[in-house]
Design a protein that fits this description.
This protein is mainly β and about 190 residues long. The chain has one domain: Jelly Rolls (Sandwich). It is about 5% helix and about 35% strand. A hairpin with a 2-residue loop joins strand 2 and strand 3. The radius of gyration is 20 Å and the shape is globular. It starts with a helix and ends in a 16-residue tail after the last strand.
Amino acid sequence: MTFAALYAGAVVAVQAGIEGLEKARKDAATVTADGTPLQELIEGVKIHRPPTHADERGTVCEIYDLRWGLTDEPLVYAYHVTIRPGQTKGWVVHLMQIDRLFVYAGVARIVLYDARTESASFGRLNIFHFGDHDRALLFIPAGVYHAIQNVGDDDAAFINLPSQPYQHDDPDKYRLPLDNDVIPYRLPASG
């Protein structure tokens, strides 16, 4: 008898003795054995995880470098955002602007929804968790809704390096309520 057959037989025997197992949902694989995420990215979404360099004096983590070759868009504007524990910012979409979020503090759940009807990934969701445990520069294309929820115990923080400066007299920012019938995802309560 092969190992697979023995294993399958053992699983069936264990399943028979667990109350409520027929109502439980089995976890799906989310990463490979080497830790590579299995999530298929929305078209145009990019993630860069710059290393954090530490020594006895502290740490250094690069935020953005044009030489990384991630975009040809110039760096024209930057701003800093914090989100209190349990709070959410979003849903937001831009028609022209590309967001480049460098998430570095707290624990932020970032949910993206591709609403571009001509996109190869139209209707796809991406869900990420970034922060002090996993610093990342996340590129969000125009036409992709995004919401950011602090699921940690401390303030979450990020720096946005958008592709164009904020137009105070005519913002390129459109909002949906958190609970809507456009995006097939409900942000769970945190905290």
